[in-house]
Amino acid sequence: MLYGLLLRFCFVCFGNRPEQLNGIKWSDIDFTKQTLMFVDTKGKNAIPKKRVIPLANRAMAILEQAQRISGCFDGPFIITGGSPIDIRNLGRFVGAYNDWLQDHAMAEGKQPPERFTAKDLRRTATRLFTDCRVLKEHRYLLQSREDGSVESKHYDHDDRLPEKRDVAKIYDDYLSRIIEGTANEEPDNVIQFKATVPSIA
């Protein structure tokens, strides 16, 4: 269950990577301001950088689901022994989910959807930003990417939070329209997540 929630959380959090969000603690979440702080160690020389992103209601709902499972532990995706779930199992989880989608489609006489990998989440999120004509600079703020500017190198990404909220709303509104089927044209590579997913032992 937590693997599915983590994948969905990464997607609604603008395609940030599972290894960035997997180890977050409840103390990293400001439920009043609806923000999340996490440490990004990805990139050149792997220098840890603090990132702060806004959380839409959809992300908060996922955290509420996780809280019912791991609320007594230090973080949303921590279950036993104080360690986060092993993201090395994500590939196995996604493979099982692809199998479930394929079997479900075939049982209904439909064309099976194209298989995807965990890495496709970030590409799909980037595609949504592109479809919404979000500037690369603004997308980088939310996706923990460096744009080569002095600001990116020397300032934490919690700066410009009001600006991030504006861009996050564009992303979340477009995602809502895709889910509801009201978007003018749904991108080919948008991954559809169902509420029911297979469990993995």
Principal-axis shape equals globular
Percent of sequence in beta strands:
5-15%
Helix content: 40-55%
- Look at the helices and sheets and give the structural class: mainly alpha
Q: How far is it from the N-terminal to the C-terminal residue, by CA?
A: 10 Å
Order of helices and strands: HHEEEHHHHHH
CATH second-level architecture: Orthogonal Bundle
Helix count equals 8
Question: Secondary-structure blueprint of this entry?
Answer:
Layout lengths: L1 H11 L5 H4 L7 E2 L4 E6 L8 E6 L2 H14 L19 H18 L12 H12 L4 H7 L7 H5 L6 H20 L21
Antiparallel strand pairs: 1-2, 2-3
Can you walk me through this structure?
By secondary structure, this protein is mainly alpha-helical. The protein has one domain: hpI Integrase, Chain A, CATH 1.10.443.10. 45% of the residues lie in helices and 7% in strands. It contains 8 helices and 3 strands, in the order ααβββαααααα. The chain has a 3-stranded antiparallel β-sheet with strand order 1-2-3. α1 packs parallel to α5 and α6 packs across α8. The N and C termini lie close together (10 Å). The relative contact order is 0.17.
Tell me briefly what this model is.
It is built from 8 helices and 3 strands; from the N terminus they run ααβββαααααα. Strands 1-2-3 form a 3-stranded antiparallel beta sheet. It has 201 residues and is mostly helical.
Task: Give the key terms.
mainly alpha; disordered C terminus; 7% strand; three-stranded antiparallel β-sheet; hpI Integrase, Chain A; 8 helices; 201 residues
